Automatic annotation (TrEMBL):
The gene is GILT1-L1. One of its GO terms (cellular component) is extracellular region. Keywords: Glycoprotein, Secreted, Signal. Belongs to the GILT family. This is GILT-like 1. It comes from Homarus americanus (American lobster).
Length: 189
């Protein structure tokens, strides 16, 4: 039985806000697959990627991101949004952000576009609360086995390897349909 229960497939996406491969994955694979298969997917986002987060001892964290401080900010905005939005709304917001030319600074614009209140997300993203949530995403990312070597990384029912990741990045929909254990799905035929 698949890890999501009720035959659903648990899909976890580890990504970064300014990673071109993450942006391409959202646009070409994740969003179209979600549109067709959201009723059989338990989707979860882990914005962090190849970053480091070190506790400062003051309740905050020193963050370093692969594509610089702006990426850390974008990751934090998405992490804060995760904390308060349903998965369907997260998908709409993150898809909006990740398909813009510079996703890290599109949180406010995309919040307006998808009808989400920006103020609490903005407040969280400027706070130690947001840093703490992002740090937790870092802990999750660093505990992946095998270790993250490519962003985005996609786990299916909690697992991934190089071959599976290559398939996820190229044909996520077929992969989810193959793993799915529930009754026949109209978009998996």
């Amino acid at each position: 039985v698949s890890g999501g229960g009720r035959g659903r497939v648990k899909v976890t996406v580890y990504f970064e806000s300014l990673c071109s491969d993450s942006m391409k994955f959202f646009k070409d694979q994740l969003y179209p697959t979600w549109r067709d298969l959201q009723d059989i997917m338990d989707l979860e986002f882990v914005p962090f990627g190849k970053a480091t987060a070190t506790p400062t001892g003051t309740g905050d964290y020193e963050m370093e991101c692969q594509h610089g401080p702006n990426e850390c900010y974008g990751n934090k905005v998405m992490t804060c949004a995760q904390n308060s939005l349903t998965i369907a709304t997260q998908m709409e917001l993150f898809h909006c952000m990740m398909t813009k030319p510079y996703p890290a600074f599109t949180g406010e614009q995309c919040s307006r576009e998808v009808g989400v209140d920006w103020a609490p997300i903005d407040e969280c993203s400027k706070s130690t609360v947001g840093s703490g949530l992002l740090y937790k995403n870092g802990v999750r990312t660093s505990s992946l086995k095998p270790r993250v070597y490519f962003i985005p990384t996609v786990t299916i029912d909690g697992h991934y390897n190089r071959n599976q990741l290559r398939t996820s990045l190229g044909d996520l929909k077929t992969q989810i349909c193959e793993v799915y254990q529930g009754p026949p799905h109209q978009n998996c035929l």
